[in-house]
Specification:
Elements lengths: L2 H13 L5 H7 E8 L5 E3 L1 H12 L2 E16 L2 E14 L11 E15 L2 E16 L11
Parallel strand pairs: 1-6
Antiparallel strand pairs: 1-2, 3-4, 4-5, 5-6
Helix pairs in contact: 1-2
Length: about 140
């Protein structure tokens, strides 16, 4: 699978609430890491799965959209830049879709990848938000409430 598809499949698993060990292993190298927008770094499949599951449990729904992938390959490694926009609907939102119950953020996604015998795997994934709107103040609360 190519790198843009790898990224899309990972975020689809988050949005569909089906992130699991197999998806994390098919996305990241064994020592791969995520640097979340709050600066927290997660390293290795166990920590990535545990912390991403805990963090996204705060939301009733999420919707991630990735566009404009720029992939720069050098042998068996690659660097990726993509634009990302994501909606997050807080669990306590009920059935409302008002801005008080969700936030939308956009920014730049960057990833490093390596080609392995099993295909492309991410060595690092980071997201730098450039804007957000809606109920964003809760975004800075700990994922471990």
């Amino acid at each position: 699978m190519d790198i843009p598809t790898l990224l899309s499949a990972y975020f689809a698993a988050i949005d569909d609430k089906r992130l699991d060990t197999d998806i994390v292993a098919a996305t990241f190298l064994p020592d791969g890491r995520i640097v979340r927008p709050d600066g927290v770094a997660l390293t290795g499949p166990v920590e990535i799965l545990d912390e991403q599951t805990r963090s996204f449990a705060r939301f009733r729904a999420t919707h991630h959209m990735l566009t404009d992938h720029v992939v720069t390959r050098s042998g068996d490694t690659a660097q990726v830049r993509a634009n990302m926009q994501a909606m997050h609907l807080w669990n306590d939102a009920g059935n409302s879709a008002e801005l008080e119950t969700h936030f939308v953020a956009g920014g730049v996604l960057r990833a490093g990848a390596e080609f392995t015998p099993d295909g492309w795997r991410l060595s690092e994934l980071t997201m730098r938000p450039t804007w957000r709107t809606g109920a964003t103040t809760r975004m800075f609360l700990s994922a471990h409430r």
